[in-house]
């Protein structure tokens, strides 16, 4: 069974106001150095990143995510903060750059875009046997990623207002150079050639700034899928991780069987991603096979059916089915945020609810 690791970017917020606070350095210091997984700083001081140990069982992934969220909550409390799994800050904030040489180089390159950037994503790493298998998976899973984006939308509010998007983080993120869907590579050699060409421009400073929607990890023998918002609820994050693993499994099977990669233009994948980011599960999505718009439930069902054999092999079919039914019936993190706002009229309550949901 393929290994899975999940990284989460989490906001640190003021317990009284809900405004993000620049305490990542203190939180990292307060974290137990003997813990099973590290807490690290990120681009801005108002957030931290966690990463689960490598696991094969989704039950173990869930346990690791819950444990890490508890550890961050404890370390944040010691620093005078709370932690919230939010894709963007609902309340206005002035991000403060983490004092790091690489981040300063990024800021010098991107200017105000970096100054304004504060988003929380979820990155899913899935083990692959070789770069050949990894690139084959990247080439075949790309049309399905917008559906994953829709399932994980959790960033409707930004800078004190409703953005109009379910997953506004996707739009913020795609301003950066090197982001978005990649064209079909065909081979590891072509993958490396294209990355080298990007680096040669001087706009992408290093391999870490190759921000494809899905890429080969530079640190691990994995495919890394980067499209989901950080999920409000652990159960949603686990379902997304299970679906991503099943997508890699299904793509690798298709490659081994000699099936070609779907020749879907990247421009169309980007448009499908826009729909997913704009409406989440509340409107139509682009069907990954036909390219036409269909009700969100139809696109999600198509995704589950596409990866059903892989989910059955891993024992994750019931887990994913239950989570998907819940999301279709009651909405994503974005829908919950809007529900709290409708009920209270106060974005501080939205953040407070997110704090509660993050630790639950």
From TrEMBL:
An MF annotation (GO) of this entry: ATP binding
Gene3D superfamilies: 3.30.590.20
Protein family according to the UniProt entry: Belongs to the glutamate--cysteine ligase type 2 family. YbdK subfamily.
Organism expressing this protein natively: Cellulomonas carbonis T26
Main function: ATP-dependent carboxylate-amine ligase which exhibits weak glutamate--cysteine ligase activity.
UniProt-recorded name of the protein: Putative glutamate--cysteine ligase 2
Gene Ontology biological-process annotations: modified amino acid biosynthetic process
InterPro entries from the UniProt entry: GCL_type2/YbdK_subfam, GCS2, Gln_synth/guanido_kin_cat_dom, YbdK
Reactions listed under catalytic activity: L-cysteine + L-glutamate + ATP = gamma-L-glutamyl-L-cysteine + ADP + phosphate + H(+)
Stored SUPFAM superfamilies: Glutamine synthetase/guanido kinase
Residues of the signal peptide: none
A Pfam cross-reference name: GCS2
Enzyme Commission number(s): 6.3.2.2
NCBIfam families reported in the protein's UniProt record: gshA_cyan_rel, PRK13517.1-1
């Amino acid at each position: 069974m393929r290994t899975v690791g999940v990284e989460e970017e989490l906001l640190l917020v003021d317990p009284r106001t809900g405004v993000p606070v620049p305490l990542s350095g203190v939180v990292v210091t307060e974290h137990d150095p003997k813990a099973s997984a590290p807490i690290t700083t990120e681009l801005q001081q108002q957030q931290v990143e966690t990463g689960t140990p490598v696991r094969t069982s989704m039950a173990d992934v869930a346990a690791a995510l819950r444990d890490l969220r508890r550890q961050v909550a404890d370390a944040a409390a010691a620093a005078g903060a709370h932690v919230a799994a939010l894709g963007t800050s609902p309340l206005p904030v002035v991000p403060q750059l983490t004092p790091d040489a690489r981040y300063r180089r990024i800021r010098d390159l991107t200017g105000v875009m970096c100054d304004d950037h504060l988003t929380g994503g979820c990155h899913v790493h899935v083990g692959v046997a070789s770069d050949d298998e990894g690139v084959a998976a990247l080439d075949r899973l790309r049309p399905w990623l917008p559906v994953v984006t829709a399932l994980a939308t959790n960033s409707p509010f930004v800078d004190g207002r409703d953005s109009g998007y379910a997953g506004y983080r996707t739009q913020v993120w795609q301003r950066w150079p090197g982001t978005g869907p990649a064209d079909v590579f065909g081979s590891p050699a072509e993958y490396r050639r294209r990355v080298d060409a990007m680096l040669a421009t001087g706009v992408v400073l290093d391999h870490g700034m190759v921000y494809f929607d899905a890429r080969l990890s530079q640190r691990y023998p994995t495919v890394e899928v980067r499209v989901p918002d950080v999920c409000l609820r652990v159960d949603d994050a686990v379902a997304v991780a299970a679906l991503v693993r099943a997508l890699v499994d299904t793509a690798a099977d298709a490659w081994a069987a000699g099936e070609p990669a779907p020749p879907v233009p990247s421009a169309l994948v980007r448009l499908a991603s826009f729909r997913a980011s704009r409406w989440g599960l509340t409107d139509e999505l682009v069907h990954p096979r036909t390219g036409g718009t269909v009700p969100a439930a139809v696109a999600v069902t198509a995704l589950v059916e596409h990866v059903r054999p892989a989910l059955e092999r891993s024992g994750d079919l019931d887990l994913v089915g239950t989570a998907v039914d819940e999301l279709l019936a009651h909405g994503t993190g974005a829908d919950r945020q809007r529900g709290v706002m409708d009920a209270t009229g106060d974005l501080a309550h939205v953040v407070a609810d997110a704090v509660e949901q993050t630790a639950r």
